[in-house]
Specification:
Length: about 80
């Protein structure tokens, strides 16, 4: 796979996780989950481009998960 630009979304084929490319360090790509969270490293050969519908689906999953975890801070 060619090197992805910072800010693009890719799939870590080892786990199926979708992440945003944050940096390239030491021959590995650093990814952050859609919507934020703890970054992880992945070898570039284990990545594929994420389709727009995959990214949208992951955003909806994240919103639903956050909504189920309780009311947002600061709301009555």
């Amino acid at each position: 796979m060619e090197t992805r630009e910072i800010g693009t979304y890719v799939v870590d084929v080892r786990s199926g996780r979708i992440g945003e490319v944050m940096a390239r360090v030491g021959g590995r790509v650093q990814l952050r989950p859609v919507g934020g969270g703890r970054e992880w490293d992945c070898p570039p050969e284990e990545l594929r481009e994420a389709a727009p519908d995959e990214v949208l689906r992951e955003r909806v999953r994240r919103l639903n998960r956050d909504a189920r975890s309780g009311p947002a801070a600061g709301l009555p």
